[in-house]
Amino acid sequence: MSDTDIIDQLKQGSEAAFKTLVDTHQKLVVNTCYGLVQNREDAEDIAQDVFVEVYRNIDKFRADAKLSTWLYRIAVNRSLNHIRDNKKRKWFHSFEDEVANKRREAMQVSTSNTDEPEYELENQQRAIILKEAINSLPQNQKVAFTLSKYEELSYQEIAEVMDLSVSSVESLLFRAKKGLQKKLYKCFKKKCL
Amino acid sequence: MKCKNVHNKLIFFLEKELPVSEMEQVQKHLDECSKCARFAAEMRNTLQILDNDKVNDENPFFYTRVKERLSKQAEEQPAVRPVLVRILQPVAFSMLLLLGVYGGFMLGQAPNANIAGSGFTEQEVIPYWNELEAEPIEAFLME
Ligand SMILES: [Zn+2]
Asked: Is residue A136 part of a domain?
């Protein structure tokens, strides 16, 4: 079933069409949210809200628009809202909580591909630093970087999602990578890498 | 190429985004400079984490959760009445309060004419007004 078919049937109230839409686009949405909020549980939570929003607003969806672009946009907006709300909440969290959280998140990442515990530990450390570095990027750079790295979108596709020109996206990604490089180098010099 | 130049280009080198000539220059430097080579290796390992960091498995309960959320919101949707109650209750409460104050004021103003004639004592009347005021306060707080 094509996206257009799914949308048409969903507009007519088909539940099966909605299930198909969720099943076929779940990974896209969860992964995008994950790239931005860097936490699996939160990402799934936000992603569920994304689909609820899609269901409720399907009538407003333009027939000539691309479904994935729409999904990416909602996912990005909701994730950014989540980050903003979280920042407010973090005023009340201690630094220790933060480090503990980071560690737990990093554990989720590096339980992947190896049996060597030493390498695992190093990778955990790398994951923490990398997440820290990504999180410190300015918002637009982070969005472009996430769509590029986590969803492997082309510059053109990122431009559509973010409603920017391709050259702006190029510039955002260039600055994002420069920023990451700088952070990682600082860490390397301080031997925290 | 100097170390500093290499540091500035390393991420683009690792992402294979440099022009061929620069790719070669960086590679040449890395072959000769152990410090930059170590940083390059570390950076490569760190960036590689991103490749494994994607959400690849699907949550089999995902759709059910979305449906749950939808029906939960649908239940909460006829929230028009509570809103109305929330607005109307203070309004009714204020009006009762005003009525009470007004009543008290009237009672205070015409004590001689009325109370003597009707046979009500002051003590009997005032608790009646007080009760009327007190009841909505409780109801208001309990809501
Ligand atoms: Zn060097």
From this structure: no
Residue with tokens 């009006």: B95
- Given CB atoms, is A32 within the 8 Å cutoff of chain B? no
Query: Has residue A124 been placed in a domain?
Result: no
Average pLDDT, chain A: 88
Comparing alpha-carbon positions, the chain A residue that sits nearest to B71 is: A52
- At B120 the three-state DSSP class reads coil
| Percentage, residues of chain A above pLDDT 70 | 85
Q: How far is the alpha carbon of A103 from chain B, nearest alpha carbon, in Å?
A: 15
Asked if the Cβ–Cβ distance from B11 to A47 is below 8 Å, we say no
* B6 CA from centroid of ligand 1 (Å): 7
Q: Walk along chain A (193 residues) in steps of 10 and give the mean pLDDT of each run.
A: 89 93 96 93 96 93 88 97 84 61 64 64 88 92 96 96 97 97 89 68
What's the A134 CA to ligand 1 centre distance in angstroms? 25
Output the pLDDT for position A193: 61
CATH (domain of A1): 1.10.1740.10
Q: What is the total count of domains within chain B? A: 1
Structural domains counted in chain A: 1
Band of residue B134 on the pLDDT scale cut at 50, 70, 90: very low
In a domain, B37, yes or no: yes
Domain assignment present for A8: yes
Tell me, yes or no, whether A25 lies in a domain: yes
Q: What distance in Å separates residue A31's CA from the closest CA in chain B?
A: 5
pLDDT of residue B137: 45
Distances in Å between the alpha carbon of B53 and those of A34, A131, A135, A168, B60?
9, 10, 15, 26, 20
Q: What is the dihedral of CA A103, A108, A114, A120, to 10 degrees?
A: 0
In the numeric block, the tokens 């390992």 are attached to B45
